[in-house]
Protein backbone atom coordinates (compact mmCIF):
# COMPACT_ATOMS: atom_id res chain seq x y z
CA UNK A 1 0.00 0.00 0.00
CA UNK A 2 1.41 3.40 -0.91
CA UNK A 3 2.41 5.80 1.83
CA UNK A 4 3.98 9.21 2.12
CA UNK A 5 3.47 12.72 0.90
CA UNK A 6 1.94 11.79 -2.47
CA UNK A 7 -0.73 9.64 -0.83
CA UNK A 8 -1.59 12.39 1.65
CA UNK A 9 -1.88 14.91 -1.18
CA UNK A 10 -4.10 12.58 -3.20
CA UNK A 11 -6.37 12.17 -0.18
CA UNK A 12 -6.50 15.92 0.46
CA UNK A 13 -7.30 16.69 -3.20
CA UNK A 14 -10.16 14.17 -3.11
CA UNK A 15 -11.60 15.60 0.09
CA UNK A 16 -11.50 19.16 -1.24
CA UNK A 17 -13.03 18.11 -4.58
CA UNK A 18 -15.89 16.34 -2.79
CA UNK A 19 -16.43 19.34 -0.48
CA UNK A 20 -16.51 21.63 -3.53
CA UNK A 21 -19.02 19.38 -5.33
CA UNK A 22 -21.25 19.38 -2.25
CA UNK A 23 -21.07 23.18 -2.03
CA UNK A 24 -22.05 23.39 -5.72
CA UNK A 25 -25.18 21.54 -4.71
CA UNK A 26 -26.07 24.16 -2.10
CA UNK A 27 -24.74 22.26 0.92
CA UNK A 28 -22.29 23.54 3.49
CA UNK A 29 -19.40 21.07 3.49
CA UNK A 30 -16.45 21.09 5.87
CA UNK A 31 -13.45 18.78 5.40
CA UNK A 32 -11.51 17.69 8.49
CA UNK A 33 -8.22 16.57 6.88
CA UNK A 34 -8.08 13.14 8.49
CA UNK A 35 -8.47 14.29 12.08
CA UNK A 36 -11.89 12.70 12.75
CA UNK A 37 -12.47 8.92 12.99
CA UNK A 38 -14.86 7.40 10.41
CA UNK A 39 -15.48 10.48 8.24
CA UNK A 40 -13.68 13.25 6.38
CA UNK A 41 -16.47 15.76 5.67
CA UNK A 42 -19.64 16.92 7.37
CA UNK A 43 -22.24 18.22 4.93
CA UNK A 44 -25.19 20.25 6.13
CA UNK A 45 -28.40 21.13 4.33
CA UNK A 46 -30.56 24.24 4.51
CA UNK A 47 -32.89 22.63 7.07
CA UNK A 48 -30.01 21.84 9.44
CA UNK A 49 -29.69 18.12 8.76
CA UNK A 50 -26.17 16.75 8.31
CA UNK A 51 -24.33 13.82 6.78
CA UNK A 52 -20.96 12.32 7.58
CA UNK A 53 -18.99 11.56 4.41
CA UNK A 54 -15.95 9.29 4.10
CA UNK A 55 -13.79 10.03 1.04
CA UNK A 56 -11.39 7.54 -0.56
CA UNK A 57 -9.30 8.81 -3.47
CA UNK A 58 -7.04 7.11 -6.00
CA UNK A 59 -5.03 8.29 -9.01
CA UNK A 60 -5.61 5.00 -10.79
CA UNK A 61 -5.84 1.32 -10.01
CA UNK A 62 -8.17 0.25 -7.20
CA UNK A 63 -9.21 1.52 -3.79
CA UNK A 64 -7.60 -0.39 -0.92
CA UNK A 65 -9.38 -1.56 2.24
CA UNK A 66 -9.09 -3.94 5.18
CA UNK A 67 -11.86 -6.55 4.94
CA UNK A 68 -12.08 -6.71 8.75
CA UNK A 69 -13.66 -3.23 8.74
CA UNK A 70 -16.67 -4.69 6.92
CA UNK A 71 -17.11 -8.31 8.06
CA UNK A 72 -15.93 -10.59 10.86
CA UNK A 73 -13.14 -12.85 9.60
CA UNK A 74 -11.99 -16.01 11.38
CA UNK A 75 -8.96 -18.06 10.45
CA UNK A 76 -9.39 -21.83 10.15
CA UNK A 77 -5.79 -22.84 9.56
CA UNK A 78 -4.95 -20.95 6.36
CA UNK A 79 -8.61 -20.61 5.36
CA UNK A 80 -10.46 -17.36 5.94
CA UNK A 81 -14.07 -17.79 7.02
CA UNK A 82 -16.31 -14.75 6.65
CA UNK A 83 -18.87 -14.24 9.40
CA UNK A 84 -21.33 -11.49 10.26
CA UNK A 85 -21.39 -8.23 8.35
CA UNK A 86 -20.39 -5.25 10.46
CA UNK A 87 -22.76 -2.36 11.09
CA UNK A 88 -21.91 1.15 9.97
CA UNK A 89 -19.44 2.77 12.36
CA UNK A 90 -21.23 6.13 12.27
CA UNK A 91 -25.00 6.64 11.75
CA UNK A 92 -25.90 7.50 8.16
CA UNK A 93 -22.27 7.34 6.96
CA UNK A 94 -21.85 7.89 3.21
CA UNK A 95 -18.85 7.12 1.03
CA UNK A 96 -17.60 9.08 -1.95
CA UNK A 97 -14.97 7.20 -3.91
CA UNK A 98 -12.89 9.44 -6.16
CA UNK A 99 -10.69 8.69 -9.16
CA UNK A 100 -8.56 11.72 -9.93
CA UNK A 101 -8.22 12.55 -13.60
CA UNK A 102 -4.92 13.76 -15.04
CA UNK A 103 -4.49 17.54 -15.21
CA UNK A 104 -7.42 18.89 -17.18
CA UNK A 105 -9.20 15.52 -17.28
CA UNK A 106 -12.52 14.76 -15.62
CA UNK A 107 -12.50 13.40 -12.08
CA UNK A 108 -14.91 10.55 -11.32
CA UNK A 109 -17.11 10.26 -8.21
CA UNK A 110 -19.01 7.24 -6.88
CA UNK A 111 -21.52 7.86 -4.07
CA UNK A 112 -22.56 4.96 -1.82
CA UNK A 113 -24.10 4.28 1.55
CA UNK A 114 -22.12 2.32 4.13
CA UNK A 115 -24.15 -0.83 3.38
CA UNK A 116 -23.62 -0.48 -0.38
CA UNK A 117 -19.83 -0.19 -0.12
CA UNK A 118 -19.66 -2.94 2.50
CA UNK A 119 -21.73 -5.27 0.30
CA UNK A 120 -19.60 -4.54 -2.79
CA UNK A 121 -16.34 -5.16 -0.91
CA UNK A 122 -17.51 -8.26 0.97
CA UNK A 123 -19.24 -9.70 -2.11
CA UNK A 124 -16.09 -9.37 -4.22
CA UNK A 125 -13.92 -10.81 -1.45
CA UNK A 126 -16.31 -13.71 -0.88
CA UNK A 127 -16.09 -14.58 -4.62
CA UNK A 128 -12.28 -14.38 -4.53
CA UNK A 129 -12.06 -16.70 -1.52
CA UNK A 130 -14.54 -19.15 -3.07
CA UNK A 131 -12.26 -19.54 -6.12
CA UNK A 132 -9.40 -20.56 -3.82
CA UNK A 133 -11.23 -22.70 -1.23
CA UNK A 134 -10.97 -19.89 1.32
CA UNK A 135 -7.17 -19.60 1.14
CA UNK A 136 -5.60 -16.47 -0.26
CA UNK A 137 -2.99 -17.71 -2.77
CA UNK A 138 0.01 -15.51 -1.92
CA UNK A 139 -0.73 -14.25 1.59
CA UNK A 140 -3.20 -16.48 3.46
CA UNK A 141 -3.30 -14.27 6.57
CA UNK A 142 -3.68 -10.94 4.76
CA UNK A 143 -6.92 -9.01 5.16
CA UNK A 144 -6.16 -6.59 2.33
CA UNK A 145 -8.89 -6.18 -0.27
CA UNK A 146 -9.25 -3.95 -3.30
CA UNK A 147 -12.31 -2.46 -4.94
CA UNK A 148 -12.36 -1.59 -8.63
CA UNK A 149 -14.37 1.10 -10.40
CA UNK A 150 -16.20 -1.61 -12.34
CA UNK A 151 -17.60 -2.95 -9.05
CA UNK A 152 -19.22 0.41 -8.24
CA UNK A 153 -19.89 1.94 -11.66
CA UNK A 154 -23.66 1.97 -11.06
CA UNK A 155 -23.05 4.49 -8.23
CA UNK A 156 -21.22 7.05 -10.39
CA UNK A 157 -22.37 10.66 -9.91
CA UNK A 158 -25.29 9.79 -7.63
CA UNK A 159 -25.01 13.14 -5.82
CA UNK A 160 -28.79 13.33 -5.57
CA UNK A 161 -28.74 10.48 -3.05
CA UNK A 162 -26.87 12.76 -0.63
CA UNK A 163 -29.31 15.59 -1.17
CA UNK A 164 -32.24 13.21 -0.68
CA UNK A 165 -30.74 11.86 2.55
CA UNK A 166 -30.42 15.39 3.91
CA UNK A 167 -33.99 16.28 3.00
CA UNK A 168 -35.18 13.21 4.97
CA UNK A 169 -32.94 14.15 7.90
CA UNK A 170 -34.57 17.54 8.43
Strand content: 25-35%
Q: What does the radius of gyration come to?
A: 17 Å
Low-confidence blocks of residues: none
Q: How helix-rich are the residues, as a percent range?
A: 25-40%
Q: How many angstroms does the end-to-end distance come to?
A: 40 Å
Give a quick account of the main beta sheet: strands, pairing sense, barrel closure: 5 strands, mixed
Structural class: alpha+beta
Query: Going across the major beta sheet, what is the strand order?
Result: 1-2-3-7-8
Task: Give, in order, the helices and strands.
Answer: HEEEEEEEEHEHH
Short note summarizing the structure:
This protein is 31% helix and 29% strand.
Write the layout of secondary structure elements.
Blueprint: H1 5-24, E1 28-31, E2 41-44, E3 50-58, E4 63-66, E5 71-76, E6 79-85, E7 94-99, E8 108-113, H2 114-131, E9 144-147, H3 149-152, H4 159-169
Parallel strand pairs: 3-7
Antiparallel strand pairs: 1-2, 2-3, 4-9, 5-6, 7-8
What does this structure look like?
Helices cover 31% and strands 29% of the residues. The protein starts with a helix and ends with a helix. It has 170 residues and is of the alpha+beta class. It is built from 4 helices and 9 strands. The model has no long low-confidence stretch (mean pLDDT 91). Strands 1-2-3-7-8 form a 5-stranded mixed β-sheet. A two-stranded antiparallel ribbon has the order 4-9. Strands 5-6 form a two-stranded antiparallel sheet. 26% of the residues are buried. The protein has one domain (5-169): Trna Endonuclease, Chain: A, domain 1 (3-Layer(aba) Sandwich).
